[in-house]
Amino acid sequence: MLKKAKAWAKALKRDIVALWLAARDPRVPLSAKLVAGAVAAYALSPIDLIPDFIPVLGYLDDLILVPVGILIAIRLVPQELMSEFRLAAEQRSGRPVSRSGLAFILAIWLACIIFMVWSLKKFF
Q1: Into how many domains does the chain fold?
Q2: Which residues form the DUF1232 domain (predicted)?
């Protein structure tokens, strides 16, 4: 069972990099690029939308949202291109980092903080 989980995690990591490559390829349809880019940016972002220290919810995005997003994005990318991207992802030595994903997550957190401060001002 542990062996299966490790193989699944390795395949997910490869598919994230493959989707990152797909989002930059001109042969991929625009809708697939947008979904693949969003999923890859979020998965490769150094911070999570829901931090892992929050019980249950912290791991919800890692265990459910990211894999479901990957499955949806893979279905949108043409199969022959996805095979090519997977091969290229396996040959890459390092994992890319998504600065745009980081910026997006930070923008969401900033908007939440601003909203909370604005809401609390009404009470004081």
Answers
A1: 1
A2: 32-67
Render 41-97 in DSSP notation, one character per residue: HHHH-SS-SS-TTSTTHHHHIIIIIHHHHHHHHHHHS-HHHHHHHHHHHHH-SS---
Cα–Cα nearest to 11, from 52, 70, 64: 70
> Which residues have C-beta within 8 Å of that of residue 121, sequence separation ≥ 6?
none
pTM of the shown model: 0.71
- Could you tell me the residue range of the domain that residue 103 belongs to? 2-123
Give every CB contact of residue 18 below 8 A, 6+ residues apart in sequence: 82, 85, 86, 88, 89
Alpha-carbon span 32 to 22, nearest angstrom: 8
